Amino acid sequence: MAGDGPAGAAAPLLLLRAVKTTHTSAKERVHRRSLKEREEWIRCVVGTRRKRELLEEDEGLETHQKLERGERL
């Protein structure tokens, strides 16, 4: 053990680094996939909210026009 020196101590570190890199790579793939899924979900939700807002604006405009014409709601 005394003859190992710094090179002997570095070997477990290299092994740890290789394992850690592989693990990080897998985590990054999962993270990227989850980001993509999240972006798709956000696009869907934002689209739905925007549609709802447009419908509410249309209904508000119709209500306003009916009130201007003196029609009942």
Question: What's the mean pLDDT score?
Answer: 74
Q: Tell how many strands the DSSP assignment holds.
A: 0
Order of helices and strands: H
The gyration radius over C-alpha positions equals 31 Å
| Main beta-sheet strand count, sense and barrel state | none
**Beginning-to-end CA distance, first to last residue:** 91 Å
Shape annotation: rod-shaped
Q: What does this molecule look like?
A:
It is a single chain. The chain has a domain at 30-60. The chain has one helix at residues 5-69. The chain has one helix and no strands. It is rod-shaped, with a radius of gyration of 31 Å. It has 73 residues and is mostly helical.
Task: Name the features.
single chain; 73 residues; mainly alpha
Quickly describe the structure.
The protein is mostly helical and 73 residues long. It has one helix and no strands. The protein has a domain at 30-60.
Secondary structure topology:
Blueprint: H1 5-69
